[in-house]
Amino acid sequence: MPQRRWRIGGLLGIGVLVNYFDRISLSVAAPQLQQEFHLSNSDLGLLFSAFFWTYALLQIPTGMILDRFGVTRVGRWGALLWGVASTLTACAGGFGGIFLARALLGVAEAPGFPVSAKATGYWFPRRERAMATAIFDAAAKFSNVIGVPLVALTVVHLGWRWGFGLTALLSVAYFVAFTLIYRDPSQDSKLSAEEYRHIVDGGATPEGVGQSGSLAMLAYLLRQRKVWGLSIGFAAYGYVFYLFLTWLPGYLVQTMHMSILKSASYAAIPWIFATLSDLLVGGWLIDHLIARGHDETLVRKGVLLSGMLLGLAVFGATTTSDPVIAIIWITIALSGLAAAAPVGWSLPSLIAPHGGTGTVGGIMNFANNMMGAVAPIVTGYIVGSTHSFTNAFLVAGVMLIIGMLAFVFLLGRIEAIAEPPVAPARR
């Protein structure tokens, strides 16, 4: 059978990869920025958070816009703006300029994950949804494997401005690729009739807008217990993920006294294992077990909770000053979280009523990325006050426990939320 859907899945994965090159570039360049502009750890925490304030606050509006205007149009405009924001970062002249450019990057990248989640729902039947989601979610982890060393080499040899310049060029290249390649299944002339039937008959999310208006859909979803369970649980995941995404290179430089290049090579290790865990456990294993007839809710929630439980290995990093032991604990934690992440990202298309996938994804990603704003600031404050990452990692562990409780007691079975009632027409 033709595999057009997997090519689209690969395209979405490349988009997330470039997305995260943009995000990690600041954490790699941070030591140079700290030296050049005389920044404190608290200042760095604010810079790390700048992206997430706008990114998080725009998630719900972006989800509503996505449900209204569709993947193709929203995805194109978002990709174009990534390159603009990275270019402005490279040209910034100090703390204020970098902060504003990173805030603009948050605006530009706000549609990124909701676009990928909604497109995956359109393009893949339910029993392939975990692997398809894992492709773009694993790209977020793999970006650290190749992106951190690549940006680090650029920063060390050419300076921090070229680190952002590199990500700007990659962003523009992806905009061109997405514009030329992506179409929804019903509009894709290269998709065969046989594969289209396979996608639709397998339970793909129907294309089109919902019966309710965007604000009515949002109000309805905010009253649903499942949406709150998903959002609180994914916020806990986001806190720990973004702590490591923003602070891991700095942790290795400050606590383990490594150079930028050495910290980049060490930081890549947990992300390699996280990428593999994302694809093999969060993707392949889930689809394999569901295809063999195991209960879908039991499989997905089992992986979700087991992954979050392994995330508690972050506590282990507080007990050692040996960089090898610390990296082992962090690798276990990130690998567990990576296995859980595709489950989280597959849920909007699995539980949303018709036409509400983007809005559910927006609500979930708002909660997730508010933690992306909070975690760098809290971590920077704790490290600045205590000169240690110990308490910062303890806070992360507590967040994971709260998230697991939300998944267990609020999310419930993984099944579609009932359609919102349609208001009677006026006469």
UniProtKB/TrEMBL annotation:
The chain crosses the membrane at residues 45-66, 78-105, 162-182, 227-248, 268-286, 298-318, 324-345, 366-383, 389-411. It is a multi-pass membrane protein. Gene3D superfamilies: MFS general substrate transporter like domains (1.20.1250.20). Keywords: Membrane, Transmembrane, Transmembrane helix. It is found in: Membrane. PROSITE patterns: MFS. This is MFS transporter. It comes from Aquitalea aquatica.
